[in-house]
């Protein structure tokens, strides 16, 4: 007679671990490099930092494209972190879904606002 020593357990979401870890590291590295680049350009510029120097920093198209990539990276970085927090600590599925939808809407709104500010310079 066969003995049952427990029930089969279905593990869900386990495949997110390495992908989330790697995406957090890649986006963080991109944001850190961008921060160093902006600080270096501002610190090594001559004279005080005014609107002209700030707008001049973001005037080239490559800088706008890089800043746009950083804005998207920041939004994705925040999404991965908040999604993991909601998945780990919020047990009711409806509440978790509501918080995830709110987080997505908030992050898309913040990214859109950041792009507007960047391209208005």
Please give a quick description of this structure.
Helix content is 76%, strand content 0%. By secondary structure, it is mainly α.
Helix content: over 70%
Number of strands: 0
CATH topology: 3 helical TM bundles of succinate and fumarate reductases
Give the CATH architecture.
Answer: Up-down Bundle
Portion in beta strands: under 5%
Q: Spans with pLDDT under 50 lasting ≥5 residues?
A: none
Order of helices and strands: HHHH
Mean pLDDT: 89
Broad shape? elongated
Largest sheet: none
Describe the 3D structure.
By secondary structure, this protein is mainly alpha-helical. It has a single domain, classed as 3 helical TM bundles of succinate and fumarate reductases (Up-down Bundle). It contains 4 helices and no strands. Helix 1 runs antiparallel to helix 3 and helix 3 packs antiparallel against helix 4. It is elongated, with a radius of gyration of 21 Å.
Task: Give the tags.
3 helical TM bundles of succinate and fumarate reductases; about 0% strand; 4 helices; mainly alpha; about 120 residues
Ordered list of secondary-structure elements with their pairings:
Layout: H1 16-43, H2 51-57, H3 61-89, H4 93-120
Helix pairs in contact: 1-3, 3-4
